[in-house]
Amino acid sequence: MMKTIALIFISLIMTISLSSCGGGGGGSSNTTPPPPPPPAPPAHALAGTWFGTLEDVDFVLHALEVTVADDGSLSSILVDGINDGVTGTITGNITHSNSTVSYALSFSDNSSGGITVDSSSTHLSFIDDNFSYAVLQKDAVNTLPTYSSDELVGTWTGFGVILDSSLFISGTFSANVTVDGNYNFTGSDDASTFTGVYLSGDTNFGRFTYDVINSNNEEGKVTILVSPDKSFFTSYTCPAAGYSNFITECSFTNWE
Question: What is residue 40's predicted lDDT score, i.e. its pLDDT?
Answer without folding.
Answer: 60
